[in-house]
Design a protein that fits this description.
Chain lengths: 131, 404
């Protein structure tokens, strides 16, 4: 299967690999996918007090396109507000990485991971407000 | 010494033609080009003599009579001729066939075709180590069973089936027994005077001969009969028409001669390389050997690397030419049906690699491969959330995944 140069670059040199403390109230964690389907993505974002994402980390079990999609979104997320982050569309990811049709699901998974991480963070913050 | 990449570790897919074989073939393309069926001049006689010498060499490797060897285009054709030919000829006696789920597609698909024609087939599931349980084989026999087909050496996991035991059961029940030996020649000793086998398929290109040539052994005593699948000039005693490819046949004969003479030494060397490869790879955590390690040819090592996804694994090891347990089709990843039949999970089947070692593999190749696998598996696991969870002691089978 032929990969685009951008996919290969992210696969060879993935950005922001790692984990943040999932118990930190400023950290949101999204885990999507299933091993049996061949992809699992874990995406974490950390916001500062003004609600801007200052760090993002990922770990992905999946093909080169899945690794590249998650690596790319960690770059895009930094400096964005949560609302801006939630606006990131899979089509933009697929376009940037020139994913072939059979790999579009990798970009969908990356979008889902962002949404899950944002939702996790928002629910943590609303819990805090209630308390 | 530096190694040249990519390193070829896919000898079970095909082997290079041994230079000694190539040298022997060349004059039969240009100089001795006669048709071995031409009886009226020396061009034909020379070609015929070369064909008969080669037939003798093929027969000698497996201790058969040269008259029991029929030339074909390869093991796929041999399997088709044996399975369809015998099933059709003996269909009056019964229409049930026994084979195994882990057979090559060139056995499974002819059997499926016979099913479409009205035959019934039992596909035995092997044990988790890849071997056929003899008792289960016995239990599958029916009064109308006419044919059984069990491969000698499995192409994906290298396990050696107990052909003698299965053959003896077939004899007791009057069942024609076919064995696909494409992966066995030059790797295990085959003695067809002793082995109770009626039909056996061979390929040249798995044993350092050229592609496009193979043979089928058809027992004479007791005589086994077949319906031809290819009709025409009546070559090969009517069993397989078509002008003989003299140069290919000469190549197969020479390749099988070399195999007979060098097999013992070569296998000892390959076993040392396999042991070195296995020891190196077992230094990596969470690796699983697929298939029985004892009843197995030393040429094959099939290993699953847990918590690493198959396609990214293939991308990571492009410096070595190996086969993967996930057949990468255009739309999706299909885990190997052989590994699935052993009961391996989809994840482990996907993350498997078949390393196959051969005549031209060196110790340096093996050491390079071990170092490469260690570094790449390490890198991919660093990226893997599953590996992280495993390290944290989470049982992944108990996690509720958000399926997509």
């Amino acid at each position: 299967m032929a990969y685009s140069d951008k996919v290969l670059d992210h696969y060879e040199n993935p950005r922001n690999v790692g984990s943040l403390d999932k118990n930190d109230p400023h950290v949101g964690t999204g885990m999507v996918g299933a091993p049996a389907c061949g992809d699992v993505m874990k995406l974490q974002i950390k916001v500062n007090d003004s609600g801007i994402i200052e760090d993002a980390k990922f770990k992905t079990y999946g093909c080169g396109s899945a690794i590249a999609s998650s690596s790319l979104v960690t770059e895009w997320l930094k400096g964005k507000s949560l609302d801006e982050a939630a606006q990131i569309k899979n089509s933009a990811i697929a376009e940037e990485l020139a994913l072939p049709p059979v790999k579009i699901h990798c970009s969908v998974l990356a979008e889902d991971a962002i949404k899950a991480a944002v939702a996790d963070l928002k629910s943590k913050q609303s819990d805090k407000e209630v308390a | 010494m530096t190694v040249k990449t990519p390193i070829y570790l896919d000898y079970s897919a095909t082997t290079p033609v041994d230079p000694r074989v190539a040298e022997k073939m060349i004059p039969y393309i240009t100089e001795f080009f006669g048709n071995p069926a031409s009886r009226s001049h020396s061009f034909g006689w020379t070609a015929e003599k070369a064909v008969e010498n080669a037939r003798e060499e093929v027969a000698k490797l497996v201790n058969a009579d040269p008259r029991e060897i029929v030339w074909t285009s390869g093991a796929t054709e041999s399997n088709n001729l044996a399975i369809k030919g015998a099933a059709h000829f003996y269909s009056g006696k019964g229409k049930h066939i026994i084979t195994v789920m882990t057979e090559h597609k060139a056995v499974i698909d002819p059997v499926r075709e016979l099913e479409r024609e009205g035959f019934e087939a039992t596909f035995l599931q092997p044990e988790p180590n890849g071997l056929v349980d003899i008792e289960k084989f016995k239990a599958a026999i029916r009064p109308d069973t006419v044919l059984a087909s069990v491969m000698f050496v499995n192409n994906e996991i290298g396990v050696i089936q107990d052909i003698e035991a299965i053959g003896n059961i077939c004899r007791e029940h009057g069942i024609i027994f076919h064995v696909d030996a494409a992966q066995a020649t030059g790797k295990v000793a085959i003695d067809l005077e002793k082995l109770p086998v009626d039909l056996m398929s061979f390929s040249a290109h798995k044993t350092y001969g050229p592609k496009g040539i193979g043979a089928l052994y058809v027992r004479r005593k007791p005589r086994v009969r077949l319906e031809a699948q290819m009709h025409g000039g009546g070559h090969e005693r009517g069993l397989r028409s078509g002008t003989l490819a003299t140069h290919q046949i000469v190549g197969m004969g020479e390749a099988f001669r070399i195999a007979r003479e060098e097999m013992e030494l070569e296998n000892a060397r390959i076993r040392r390389l396999r042991d070195r490869l296995l020891a190196g790879l077992q230094e990596i955590d969470e690796v699983y050997v697929n298939g029985d390690l004892k009843q197995r040819v030393p040429h094959n090592l099939n290993i699953s690397f847990n918590f690493v996804e198959g396609e990214s694994l293939i991308m990571a090891v492009k410096d070595i030419a190996v086969s993967s347990g996930s057949a990468c089709t255009s739309a999706s990843l299909e885990p190997s049906y052989v590994l699935r039949a052993l009961g391996r999970s989809d994840e482990l089947a996907h993350s498997s690699i078949r390393f196959s070692i051969g005549r031209f593999t060196t110790e340096e190749d093996v050491d390079y491969t071990v170092a490469l696998m260690k570094s790449k598996i390490g890198k991919l696991r660093e990226l893997s959330p599953l590996w992280e969870m495993h390290q944290e002691g989470i049982d992944l089978s108990k996690v509720e995944w958000a399926a997509h």
